[in-house]
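BUG-353 | component: ligand-complex export | severity: low

The export step for 2-OXO-4-methylpentanoic acid jobs runs without errors, but we want the raw record kept on the ticket for reference. Input record follows.
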Amino acid sequence: MSNPTTPPTDKLDWQNIGFQYRDINGYAKYTWTPENGWDEGSLETNPYLNVHMCSTGLNYGQECFEGLKAFRTKDGRIRVFRPHENGKRMNLTAAFGSMPGIPEEIFLEAIKKTVQANLEFVPPYGSGGSLYLRPLLFGSGPMIGLSPAPEFTFIVFGVPVGNYYKDGVKPVDACIIEDFDRSAPLGTGSFKLGGNYAPVFLPTEKAKKQGFPITLHLDSKTHTYVDEFSTSNFVALSNKDGVTTLVTPNGRTILRSVTRISLVEIARDLGWTVEERDVPFSEIEEGKFDEIAACGTAAVITPVKTISRGEKSYNIGSGEQTEIGAGFNALYKQYKAIQNGDVADTKSWMWPA
Ligand code: COI
């Protein structure tokens, strides 16, 4: 995977690729059965799958996914950001969803196969883009009763991507989704099950029409604490008496974002205080935070300048800023520098090393 001889294709306009599906050369696919466990896998080219109509993936949503990215360094090497963390998280979700776990060596092999088959789709160094990798695991065999499938499929496909939100790291307006609860107190919110995501299509489309590209969920039980954005986790910064504090929820109902845990580490390295705790919405109403952002593999760091709840809108900072704030910019620069290979990878986050 350190092939510096395959340059990015010149068939894509790398500055404007956005976040959308595109066909690539091929993807890794594995099949699991109770008798044989995971097979040795294959590299496939047809994006259409042959899946049983009675599969649990299609009938009961027995499915989970991950998102991670491969980057090109200045000297042309290609490396993936923290794949071991995504592998661990996929196995936690798989166990919760009665699906077979993926041994780490298969997870990494699948990532490697897919990246290697698509080296020209890893965007150029410095373009801001990456090859977004999407591991998928689902029940593909028939089962009409409420039980796990007799066969599972594990896939890793890739898509060259730029920014998820069209303005990239420019601040956006967010709104609270009031009429839908994303994550029950003892429910599925902390797992990356596909079923957590489709139900937000309707409220997020409604929000987009009202001018809010990004939507935030509160806790389902009391609607008083910040949960997470529909696409990503919530992080906030405050500056007081020369001390910068990063505040982020880390409870039972939210996804353990690999971006969030990485930003927490970078913040600590910068000497900032970190508070991983429940965040009452009243702290936003009272203007306690100087900066707020959404963070995730796809969203990276997306600064938020206002948060609307019903008729009321709360400014984060001036509420009119057009650039990322100084605090998140410091985190963003270091995070990107590690991914792009511009600074030493002292934490061994990039794979292969
Ligand atoms: C990711 O950041 O990888 C995600 O899974 C977000 C997705 C909902 C677009």
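Assignee comment: Attached the raw record above. DSSP finds seven helices and 18 strands in the chain.
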